[in-house]
Design goal:
Blueprint (H helix, E strand, L loop, with lengths): L14 H11 L8 H17 L6 H20 L4 H18 L38
C-alpha cells in the first residue's frame, strides 16, 4: 500500500472494467494485484512531484486517480478523451508544483530529509579517518 492510502477500489468503473484492466496489466510474479501496483506507482509519482508542499488529501487523491486511470486505460487500448483531458490537466498542475510555479501554495515547515544528500549519519563529523583533500 502506498503512503497516500490510495487503493484500486478508489478508481471509478465497473467490476468488469477493473477485471479487464487487471488482465491487460498481467499478473506479477509476486502474486500482487497489478491494478494496486499501478495505483502505488501513480501515488509515488504524485508524492515525488509534490514533496515539500502542503496539499489537501482530496487534491492528492484526485491527482493520483487521474494518473492511475490514464495509465490503466493506456494498458488496454486508447485512452478515452475525457480521461486524457483530466490526466493532462492534473499532470500540468503537478509539473507546475514540482517546478515551484505555484508561489501561493504553502510549503511544509520541515522538508523531508533527502538521504541521497547526506541526511543520515552522525550529527558530528568524525575527522581524521579520511585524508583531507581526497574527495574535495
Amino acid at each position: 500500500m502506498n503512503s497516500l492510502n490510495f487503493t484500486a477500489d478508489l478508481l471509478p468503473g465497473s467490476a468488469t472494467l477493473k477485471g479487464q484492466l487487471i488482465n491487460a496489466l498481467g499478473a506479477p510474479a509476486d502474486g500482487s494485484d497489478p491494478l494496486q501496483n499501478l495505483c502505488d506507482a501513480a501515488a509515488a509519482d504524485v508524492l515525488r512531484l509534490t514533496t515539500g508542499y502542503v496539499l489537501d488529501p482530496a487534491s492528492l487523491t484526485n491527482f493520483t486517480r487521474a494518473v492511475a486511470l490514464y495509465r490503466a486505460y493506456g494498458s488496454i487500448g486508447p485512452v478515452p478523451p475525457d480521461t486524457k483531458t483530466i490526466y493532462d490537466d492534473a499532470w500540468s498542475e503537478l509539473s507546475a508544483i514540482a517546478e515551484g510555479k505555484r508561489p501561493n501554495l504553502p510549503k511544509v515547515a520541515v522538508p523531508a530529509q533527502n538521504l541521497s544528500a547526506g541526511g543520515f549519519g552522525s550529527e558530528h563529523r568524525i575527522h581524521g579517518r579520511v585524508r583531507r583533500g581526497c574527495f574535495d
